[in-house]
Amino acid sequence: MKTNKQLHCTLLIFLFGMTGLSAQNKLEVDYVNPLIGTPSAGFIDGRDGGGTMPCVGTPFAMTNFVAQTRENKISEMPYVYEDNTIQGFMATHQPTVWMGDYGYVSVMPQVGKLKLLPKDRALPFTHKDEISKPNYYSVSMGDKSQKIKGEIAAASRCGIFQFTFPKSDESHIVIQGINITENKKSFHGYINIDENKREITGYNPERMSSHLGPELKNFKGYFVIQFDKSFERFGTWNSFRTEPDIKEMGREQTGARMGGYISFKTEKNEKVKVKIATSFISLEQARENLSKEIPDWDFNKVVENTRDIWQENLSRIKVNGATEDQKSIFYTALFHTMLFPREFSEYGRYYSPFDDKVHKGVSYNDYSLWDTFRALHPLLHFTHPERVSPMIQSLLQMYQEGGWLPKWPNPTYTNIMTGTHADAVIADAYVKGFRDYDLDLAYEAVRKNAMHPPYRDTEKPWGDRDEGTLYEARGGLTYYHSLGYVAADKTRESVTRTIEFGIDDYSIAQMAKDMGKMEDYERLMGWSKNYKNLYNKETGFLNARLFNGDWDKNVQEGFTEGGRWTYLFGAMHDIQGSIELFGGRDKYAAKLNENFDGQHYRHDNEPGHHYAYLFNYAGQPWKTQELIRKHTSTINYRNHPLGINGNDDCGQMSAWYVFGVMGFYPVTPGTDIFAIGAPQFPEFTLSLRKNGEPKSFKIKANNLSEENMYIQSLKLDGKILDEPFITYTQIMNGDVLEFEMGKSPNPNAFKNN
């Protein structure tokens, strides 16, 4: 494993050798550094890395194409920066480090004696021989005499690899269709070799998270692999916990750890191209996907087409006045916000892992909702409004096909995390005017989450990743309704559940009110205050309570991924109520200061992502401005592989950064209010769409510098804003948000503060 110092040195070599472009010639896409966040280690010993990978493909691609440094599984990505060998070039669907891959396949070039297993076929590489961009990846592997260069280009469902071989009488490409399963279930894949068509077809039915969800008899990750070179020899292999059993000239193979290979002679620097088409519907659909996305063998055309698509998407926010490093951090963060949820439909049809059938329509999947309801989905309202309603429609399809909205589909129900934050995502979009889906069905789906506990709710303690416990609803909801809190001796993670159920109830209530469902509105708003029943005046914290009403003696009991400080200010939907609970704004601000000054704030996880903005509500917005400067800096974000302080969680960590440097943040879902932070670059231009028509919105920070971090005044289209808040409507109707910055806090910057 490399040290942090070695990681720094390696990246400098990478950056200076990567493009040769001058700053004047760079476009937004040229600033993206997909290696940011790829180490397994984090900023601080014992903490997680970013959980990202240097994938190639179009925005929100169905399949990610990536160099594989290890066999991935739940808790390990396919590419880890500290590794020094390449095992394959992979078509993967693993969204993040703590979720599983499914329906994947890999290929690996080699010369000399045929080696089939990943660790045997692995070739050494160094990062100085690597180039990583959103639209292109390359690496040189092997020893000096037998170097092989691997290159990747890709669209959404299909990729093309280009391998440059040395002169050899024994060159090979190894195909692996399935790993040894990690999840206690036996999966058997299939592979077929057709030497006349120069093609390998097959499917991989493995889902690494399958032990957490329902059986899916029809799930398969289909693949069609085509080569532009004839085979001289070929075969299949099977190696389930044994040495490979090779069938020379074998055309078909099934098994739990198996694949195939092709062999041929190569001349010096001969290029061999490999196209991979993927589908969750059928082999025929995979071929159709290939015909639409990569119809010919022009590798460079795919590189340029995907580059153009990324440039159009990334240039929807233009930054002026930032340093080269800052631009790389910003546009890499923006890149990370454009990966998930992933496209799951295939040109008008989609396979549903919720009813195991194929349907007509558009679909997305891999929603990291516990994380992304906070900032990622609100950011998409600005950057990708055309995708917002289809993403919600996809969630509603999951509800129709499976019975509940999902909490973390991967690609089906997984029983992961605590709240039902599809509620917040749907309600937030509804409030902001995104309504191109069945509104009655949307309300029915979120209302079910709020009103109906899971089957046998009071008989089970519930828990994250419980096996054989298919529920997806709010475990402990019965107690939340009857007692006014989730009881700690009846249900795990009780404090977190109580808070998060309230966030979702508040969000749903806003839909109910707008739709004229006032009885529901009153009930939901009442329940949303249940977190107050866990406020312990003696400790000054939200503490777990037992079924009989007593406080749990363990003050750290009842929390998800954190402790009592992590969730003390967690009621993001009722900040005024929290202020009153704490005894007023001064005491609330004092407790906030204690949280930050005592190093209790953890930016590397999501529950506290709104905390820095809470000083706005307590009458001390300059504290927010200080904290945004601190936490958008190199303390959490760097232009370096060790560049994200904590798991990026499918774009949430990156979305927080994008909002942070722009100067506003969506604290409360289900409202159109954003809390003002402080811009970190002199100028942003957002390309937005209002009623389907393009418009721009400019953010200007006058007199911004290292010293001048504090807001002196704020104007929207020349009119002074009296409060440290701005609404979605104001942004969509406005043209210029103008900050005047200075070196000292200005308590009078907002008159109504």
From TrEMBL:
Molecular function per GO: hydrolase activity
Signal peptide (residue range): 1-23
Subunit structure of this chain's protein: Monomer.
Xref: Pfam families: Glyco_hydro_92 (PF07971), Glyco_hydro_92N (PF17678)
Residues in Glycosyl hydrolase family 92 N-terminal domain copies: 31-279
Protein name per Swiss-Prot or TrEMBL: Glycoside hydrolase family 92 protein
Lineage: Bacteria, Pseudomonadati, Bacteroidota, Flavobacteriia, Flavobacteriales
Source organism superkingdom: Bacteria
Gene3D superfamilies (alphabetical): 2.70.98.10, alpha-1,2-mannosidase (1.20.1050.60), alpha-1,2-mannosidases domains (1.20.1610.10), GH92 mannosidase domain (3.30.2080.10)
Co-factor(s): Ca(2+)
Domain Glycosyl hydrolase family: 285-743
Keywords per UniProt: Calcium, Hydrolase, Signal
